[in-house]
Amino acid sequence: MWSDPYYLKRDGGEDVAVLLVDTQGMFDHETTVGLTAAIFGLSTLLSSYQIYNVDKRIQEDNLQQLALFTEYGRMAFENEEKAAATKDAPGERVEGETGGAAVPQQPFQKIEFLVRDWQNFETEDEQDLDSMEREMAEYLEHVTAERSATDLKETREQINSCFEEISCFMMTHPGFAVIKNKYEGDVSKIESLFMGLLDRYCQRVFSTETSAGGAPPRLQPKTVRGRELSAVELGTYIKSYALMFEKIGANFPKAETMLEATSKANNANAITVSTETYTELMNEIAGPHVHDYHQAEELMTRHREASKRALSAFVDMANFGSRKAIDDAREKVLLKISKDFEVFRSLNDGRNPLLGLETYLLPLLVAFLSFVLRWLADFTCSSWSQTCRASSELLSHIYMVVFFFLAIVASTKAKQISDLFDRLRAAMNLFMDRKEKRE
After folding, report:
1. Could you report the per-residue pLDDT of 325-338, keeping only the tens digit for each?
2. pTM > 0.70
């Protein structure tokens, strides 16, 4: 930040202080993407007139970076708005605070692309700066025009939704004498066209008076919620925003490089495809529409085969980005396969023909033993014996009670009884298959 503010006069004679702030170099080899986003977002929050310096032309990645980083500033701005809304009850705001003007929908005021080393002016007359400015406006209109591609369209919509005004200005190369190591700042060695554009640009940026056509001044005081800030208020906002980025910055979405974003999406797709491969293969063996029961050993063998094919599909796709990210994605695949296998094993166990037979076998066994014992009692005991007759009647009552109990169950659970006989047949077939394999 420049050590002293510049004071300019507004139309009404009021003084306005201009603070010049230069952000540190970004997009270098030392500044992380997250720090770049924080710097850009913070400077956007504090500026009424932000200048985005780009080289030679406005490229698509410049727009994408602007859209991403201003989104961080917008999120911080909305967090501050929510905090203010919770502090101020409805109706407590000071009357006339917004000056009767509607609060703009865009959270930020002005962004201007300053294109350095521009080489494509069509105007041959170096003194015709007005024509050059018209070319600048046409170029900006072309760059920011709506595109049919979804990603390009969303980038432009994001920028337009964040700024009240978007403009651009182009500067030619200052001359090769300036870039030499021996250059000592001699203004006479700077190209005349560059000096003319620089003079026009300074007048353009620092204009605080309404133009002859009635257009508002380009340089406006910083406003928040539609109200111009005083120096004291700006200082409070600077502290508040800086503290917000420091304390709750971790709640913002992580700023990712194109490589990280692409790798993340690629790994996510690999996880989806590989787990779907496993599910499709296992559905054919033990899915919800399968009726056959498989032995535990056979099911485990099929599970291993399906897992192997699923991991092979994962390896074929997950071949982009860091090794750690790929390994983490592979662990997610293995975890999903393990959980799915438990589901398939439960489904297969439910088809076990021997499952639930003990519910019917125990009463039948009791009835059978009662019948045999009664027959033995009748065959061996004398019919004149009171003890023999009582024992025979008791055993008879037992198997008759069991018989009527099973009859009642059969009448109320016909479907279960039918399934029982199906299981018995399946159990016999399973027993015979095992016997044939042993032989």
Report:
1. 899 999 999 999 99
2. no
